[in-house]
Specification:
Blueprint (H helix, E strand, L loop, with lengths): L3 H45 L4 E8 L5 E5 L5 E9 L11 E10 L3 E10 L9 E10 L5 E5 L14
Antiparallel strand pairs: 1-4, 2-5, 3-4, 5-6, 6-7
Length: 161
């Protein structure tokens, strides 16, 4: 007759191996499912194409700077958006917002982009500032922007008129 102690000894090795095998099988299956999900998500993002690049500049209603893009090329399309920080901005005086320039690549190449910042008040010499960039569109239509150093900026410089 077997005692409880002998029974435990005789079944432990087989039971342990079964539990270990089942645990490993579950881990492998969950890793496979997770890997498949991540691969599918990556493929879906690759098929969506490149996301548009966004340049944003801060301003506020009732006296903040205005921004305009100067861009004369067909390698990209630039649209604008005004994004307020607060939902009740229409009730606020001087509500802050970001002027966002959304740049979408259309064909490979590079071009000059200028964002002109103008103030309607203040020191006449500082009312207008220009932010000059080199905009590049790669073969896969991804857009990159690089700020130009002072010696590479397009002339004439930005000036208030």
């Amino acid at each position: 007759m077997m005692t409880g102690r002998g029974l435990f000894r005789s079944e432990f090795p087989g039971g342990f191996i079964k539990i270990f095998a089942i645990t490993m099988l579950l881990l492998l299956l969950s890793a496979g499912v997770l890997g498949g999900f991540l691969f599918t998500a990556r493929e879906a993002r690759a098929q969506e194409g490149p996301k548009p690049l966004e340049l944003s500049f801060h301003s506020f209603d009732g006296g903040g700077p205005s921004y305009e893009a100067e861009f004369a090329s067909d390698i990209a399309v630039i649209t604008t958006d005004r994004r307020y920080k607060k939902k009740d901005h229409d009730k606020l005086r001087g509500a802050g917002y970001d002027k966002v320039f959304i740049v979408e690549g259309k064909k490979p190449g590079s071009a000059f982009l200028r964002i002109k910042e103008e103030m309607s008040h203040g020191n006449p010499r500082l009312r207008c500032q220009c932010h000059d960039y080199e905009l590049a569109v790669s073969e896969d239509l991804r857009v990159t922007v690089k700020s130009l150093p002072e010696d590479k900026k397009k002339q004439p410089s930005c000036s208030a008129e």
